[in-house]
Amino acid sequence: MTPLLKPPTLPCDPTLCDPTLPRVLGTGSRTVLADGRDVRVVQLNNAATTPPFERTVAEVADFLGSYGALHRGAGPRARSTVEAVERAIGRIERFLGQPGGNGLLFTANTSAAINVLARLLPLTADDVVLTSEIEHTSNNLPWRYNTPARVLDVRADDAGALDEAHLEALLAEHAGRVRLLAVTGASNLTGHCPDLAGLAARCHAAGALLFVDAAQLAPHRRIDMAAAGVDALACSAHKIYAPFGLGVLSLPRAVLDRAPADPGGGSIDMVSDTGAVVWSPPAERHQTGTWNATGIVALGASCATILDTGWEAIEAHERALVRHAAAALDAVDGVRLTVPATAYLVDDRIGTFPFTVDGLHHALVAAALEHEHGIEVRAGTICNHRLVRRWAGIDDAGQARVEAAIAVGDRLAGYGIVRASLACHCGAEDVERLVEALTDLAVHGPRLRYRPVPAHETYEPA
Ligand SMILES: Cc1ncc(COP(=O)(O)O)c(C=O)c1O
Questions:
Q1: Nearest Cα to 88, choosing from 96, 312, 266?
Q2: Residues 97-141: tens digit of each pLDDT
Q3: From the alpha carbon of 48, which atom of ligand 1 is closest?
Q4: Which of 190, 285, 351, 354 could form a disulfide with 280 if both were Cys (CB 3.0 to 4.6 A apart)?
Q5: What residues line ligand 1, using a CB cutoff of 6 Å?
């Protein structure tokens, strides 16, 4: 039986909410478990998406009250919409510390933003793009599929830290041809945050640009593109407490001067019968069709909420919670953190914890956490197949077997991990609930009977 999601009894559980931190909608959501217990839902899948800030929802509601045509008509509501969007863009630019020479493009999400960037950069088959072994698929495949460049991976260790010597070696071996290093700002799997300023200095010395996939970094750490020397960056509003379907790409204006990758309405000022066009100004020509004004306003509100709260408070809360969670999870017998707990104490890592439970399929663990404990996590390869494969010790023959099974619809045949991910609305009580649940699972196994649902890579109560 799938538990019913009940409306929250309180907008924010006061036992969890630190009054200095932004209030998040729905932290008091409750669910009825299979055994009849009525429990608060523990939201530990924040790396996939975060719930919205209460202030973001309030500002969006206010904005929608006078919502009108953006760039497509006149009138007081249209004017007010343009002003709200421009104000939000200013807030987003401040949040990112965007360099003066950059412009913003809005897309649907980070994946779309990286694909746009890959198609806009003037790369040739002689060029080299470096990514790394810890990248999310969305910061790997766009470079392979949407550029003619040669794409090479910087190696990473088992805990997801970049091999800096290998980066140096690649820069030296391909000197003069490396145009870009595309690297994550914080890993969606290991939580590792590379030193962006150091990477920028190396890239620039080699004549390359630094692109940062900030999908996971943006909600957890102050970003200052200008100070760090980051040339281009992408992130997703749905991970920054503003789930209204927006992605952001900050990129050098020089790239924006090019013809658009996706021409159409809004990207042109004039079209003649022969098809010749006068493109719109660079800041507009790449955003074909009607913009997601609500998404931009929502993200602007979340950025302002974080900046008004102050990164010091958010980072201090999250860093303390990460240390607590690493130690607490590490102490559960039968649970194996695939990134050692000590890595969270010595490196800069956001609260993203991959783990397995001895003897249990990762998807079964996630199902039991949901149905028996009201805890939300994610399980699988989590768009980081190569690192998870390495952790699982799958050789080429094993990989071939897995691929063959998945190709015929058995998604449960794949290897995987469970991921618990924290955000600023999480507290020690959430970690305790997870630890209790995992302890129970490791000792007794699932208490319900489950049936596999291979098509959805999940298990459901039988
Ligand atoms: C590091 C990283 N990059 C890119 C993405 C893709 O983001 P989106 O799903 O918003 O396109 C994700 C999503 O989880 C991510 O964690």
A1: 96
A2: 999 999 999 999 999 999 999 999 999 999 999 999 999 999 999
A3: 14
A4: 285
A5: 47, 109-111, 136, 138-139, 184, 188, 213, 215-216, 236
